[in-house]
Amino acid sequence: MNFVAAARTGRPSEGRAERLARWSEGYQPQPGVPDEFMGSDGRARGAWPRFLDRLGDLDEAEIAARFASAERHIRDTGISYRIYGDQREHAWPLGSLPLVIDGEEWERLSAGIIQRAGLMEAILGDVYGPSELVARGLLPAGLVAGSPEFMRPLHGIRPPGGRWLRLYAADIGRGPDGRWRVLADRTQAPSGPGFALENRLVLGRAFPDLYADLHVERLAAFFQAFRDGLIAGARRSDPRICLLTSGPFSSTYVEQAALARYLGLLLVEGDDLVMQDGVLHVRTVSGLKRADVLWRRIDSDFVDPLELNPTSRLGVPGMIEALRNGSLVVGNMPGSGILESGALAAYLPGIARHLLGSELELGGPKTWWCGDPDSLAHVRDHLDGLALRPVATPRKGMARDAIMGPQTIGAERDRVLAALGDRPFDYVAQESSPLSTTPGWDRTEDGLRLVPRPFALRVFAAATPDGWRVMPGGFCRISERPDVEPVEMRAGIKSADVWILSDRPVEPVSLLQPGGPRVRRIAGHLPSRAADNLFWFGRYVERAEAVIRLTIAHLGHVGDAVVADVAGDTKAPTALRIRALLDKWHAVSAPDLSTAALAREALSSRALYGSALSHSLAARNNATSLRERLSGEAWRVLTDLRELLDLDEGQNGSAAQEMAEAQLLGLAERALSHIAALSGLAGENMNRTVGWHFVDLGRRIERAINTCTFAVTFAGDAASAEDLAVMLSLCDSHISYGARYLHGVALDPVRDMVLLDPYNPRSVAFQIEAITRHLADLPALRVDGIPEPHRRHALQLASAFSTGEPAAFDGAALARFENALESLADAIAGRYFPNGPHALRPEKLVGLA
């Protein structure tokens, strides 16, 4: 349902009391299904009356406007996710109501989560240590040794830092008795804390008054404690903490980037890491730098192809050795995914009594592992009333939480019985009951009403120096349909912020704590892969600008004037040169199209890799790998630029085809403004650290190359006045030229201004001077005082352009300099970027639930 459109149908003259009554009128939970808002006696319960009473102060138009601003913020900042196996990004589907829980109830729930987290830690210590649980018959040996998540090389290793788990999560819901129960344990690499953070930032931004008035518990203290726990495990006092991702094609990459940015962690892929002398290092532009702590967001068997899965291209050969010698803290430790086995729930109560001396405060549905003969017999006899799920995480063809309910089992009873007879140990059965529900909006003729919707809540506990700490909130998934369970993010499933309401004001907490670390001014260490992406981000943005400027010149607009020979005569020499260059750059499909058709293709073609749209999409792809380094404003400009240039997506195809030249000119000029905004953000908002050097290096090198190309085409020895006017326009130098020369365009003055003038920010000389400064500021590996090859290239070019005369820069000379600039770009890549057999990786389509 489109909430914003539905909310605007509310009654403008309706009073607060009438509005509240209409919202809850007819609210009816499903029989036997616990609901967050309404109890079995039909009375409102929990924190919902308090929340709705405050929400009722806003009419539906105001609620719609605020939620529309939240949706715009999600779009502008690129908060998104991927469905497993789908390369497309989907806008994050934030629900229009939070899940609201009373503070006292949350305290009781948190105690159960902490107990369960401690139990999981103890089980892992035993499974990979003395194995007493198996010896005592409390845990079947087949469940351990037969699990694909049991990492044999980890047996006998004591986890560096003293913990197997740094982050524990539990998916919970209410059972038929109304009590919270655990539906699944998440110990592998729990996803969701970053999405919970993004939900809070977005919804708190849209409803700051409700957030403050209702005393919603804040999340910052949890993340601070989690980060402190990672730091405490390391040997060095100032450790380097990395978040290991499988890359931009991970279904949760946006979340991982958000967490890295928020916590100040280094986001790395396997390509960025290397083992040396038994220690894990990050490949940076400054050389290898030690990594002390690794927050793992890839599956266990992928972390080390040397000792675990030999086909892995995501991890680092030899990483397990770093765990053996204690030089690396990993959270969560490889092998911890064994606790996600659905069969473990059948044995947890007995294990808890043995290890903790008490009963579980948070239980789960009654469970039977079919590998046990007695349990299998029970499952066969009661199959129609049970739900069946795989013991271990399937690798292909089935969702992580694939469940066959009684209805599905009934329709395929013979096949299910055959599977149980063939490999019973692969399955676990549980009591079947629907998920509990929470209120969601539904549209009616009279406006909005509340209706019950199924939900699943993921709660997180972090290992901190002071013990386990539970996030006061969580990651909630809500289904828009009553008959679809939200076991994973996909179409029809939304996410909701989780508000824990305190009965007293909540003290503001921030990661920026007084009395923190000592003051220091260092540029930080930039991974080589990130430097590569930043460099090409700058180059692609500059390429898009060059195509746009060439298109504007093609439409006949040079400076503030219209050059008739270019705009009116498509056969004029200058017009032909523009068309030929666009064709050479693969920005158009043919040089003899009509003026409007040529401009449309150059600006907005998806099929041609040289169009402005294609270059902006390439820049956006690079930016996708840099989410933790780019500001929300930069992402917003990139999004606006893509939407502006993507005519086929932005409006119907026929309207795009009918756009007149004047409309296309206006579009191109607006696109230039967006690119100027990107340049301004880089120039004014980016710290002058190594990353900024590479962004600007990419732009300067590409601009110098493009200007040489323009000069070969429009400032040759036989250049006409129209050619020279276009040359000045492409270099945005009309005003400067007019202020300096009063007698019209001439070849040598134009060449001097666009090629050799050190004061013109568009000249080649200016770019080379900036390049040499950047290279001088970048780290050097040699200490003998001799410039490295890439610096020698730059200094040679700087000498040629600082001492040259305009007349010497004919077509042949410019072609040589263009090739020299390309060689300089290659030399920079060879020095600073990933090279060799590990430079190219396959697409990393790895998702975690």
TrEMBL record:
Residues 98-478 form the Circularly permuted ATP-grasp type domain. InterPro entries: ATP-dep_Glu-Cys_Ligase-2, CP_ATPgrasp_2, DUF403. Transmembrane segments: none annotated. Signal peptide: none annotated. Residues 526-833 form the DUF403 domain. It holds the Pfam family CP_ATPgrasp_2. SUPFAM superfamilies: Glutathione synthetase ATP-binding domain-like. It comes from the Bacteria. PANTHER family: BLR2978 PROTEIN, BLR5612 PROTEIN. This is DUF403 domain-containing protein. It comes from Methylobacterium iners.
